[in-house]
Amino acid sequence: MAKTPTGKNTSGRGQRDLKVKVKSARGRKLSSTRWLQRQLNDPYVRRAQQEGYRGRAAYKIMELDDKYRFLVPGARVVDLGCAPGGWSQVAVKRINALGEKSGKSIGRIVGVDLQEVEPLAGAEFHQLDFMDDGADDKVKDWLGGTADVVMSDMAAASSGHKQTDHLRIISLCETAAYFAFDVLEDGGTFVAKVLAGGAEGELQKLLKLKFDKVMNVKPPSSRSDSSEKFVVAMGFRGRD
Ligand SMILES: C[S@@+](CC[C@H](N)C(=O)[O-])C[C@H]1O[C@@H](n2cnc3c(N)ncnc32)[C@H](O)[C@@H]1O
């Protein structure tokens, strides 16, 4: 039976509705207590533990793909900011990276992150700061060709300063977008984490020029109190 980090069973009637209360402890900040309480009461955190996903983020890409269907068998995928690996776990299955769906094409996934990522069968992970000079060329080399999907969940650790965090996430998203323009196959898809209003003005305009369809979406699993959204741009019009 699945257990929460406190050892409580997560299955069984009625259990699901019990709210876990975390006592504030000396030495733990109020913000940490709140975070812990939210984690313990989050149905997606519990579901991820029960279903073997590395994090609740897995459900965001699952929900986006259920809606737009870009992770198809045989797809070549780049996962930017892939740690701890939830998005890649979803992608490995859906693109048939392990060849489990007989008769279907076999996909490939290359993921990069600032942090080391625990290996995952079917995925190739590299530790890399994607904002470093020459990082894009390294990813291109590892990929060894074009991509059908470039997805980015990159997010910098919060600085505690709202505007700084905002600028950082925009810059990560823009860097991922320019990389996508460089490696995507015609018809390819770009998915990236953005903020509340969706892709920002200039980037939104550029994506609309480069792709047939651009959607700004908040998947149900994205916390309602977070300003996070995702841009899904489909039908890449090609490098010319
Ligand atoms: C929300 S987490 C990604 C979760 C992931 N999609 C999953 O499903 O497990 C954001 C990640 O972006 C990574 N990141 C932030 N800035 C980065 C950068 N410059 N280069 C590479 N990764 C970066 C962080 O290290 C962090 O692991």
Automatic annotation (TrEMBL):
Please state the Enzyme Commission number of this protein. Answer: 2.1.1.166
Catalytic reaction equation(s): uridine(2552) in 23S rRNA + S-adenosyl-L-methionine = 2'-O-methyluridine(2552) in 23S rRNA + S-adenosyl-L-homocysteine + H(+)
Looking up InterPro entries in the UniProt record yields: RNA_methyltr_RlmE (IPR050082), RNA_MeTrfase_FtsJ_dom (IPR002877), rRNA-MeTfrase_E (IPR015507), SAM-dependent_MTases_sf (IPR029063)
Q: Region (Disordered): which ranges?
A: 1-26
Q: Where in the cell is it found?
A: Cytoplasm
Keyword rRNA processing in the entry? The reply is yes
Q: Which Gene3D superfamilies match?
A: Vaccinia Virus protein VP39
Could you state a single Gene Ontology molecular function term?
A: rRNA (uridine-2'-O-)-methyltransferase activity
SUPFAM superfamilies xref list: S-adenosyl-L-methionine-dependent methyltransferases
Show where the Ribosomal RNA methyltransferase FtsJ domain sits.
53-236
Quote the function comment for this protein: Specifically methylates the uridine in position 2552 of 23S rRNA at the 2'-O position of the ribose in the fully assembled 50S ribosomal subunit.
What does the similarity note say?
A: Belongs to the class I-like SAM-binding methyltransferase superfamily. RNA methyltransferase RlmE family.
Q: By what name is this protein known?
A: Ribosomal RNA large subunit methyltransferase E
Q: Which organism is it from?
A: Tritonibacter litoralis
Coding gene?
Answer: rlmE
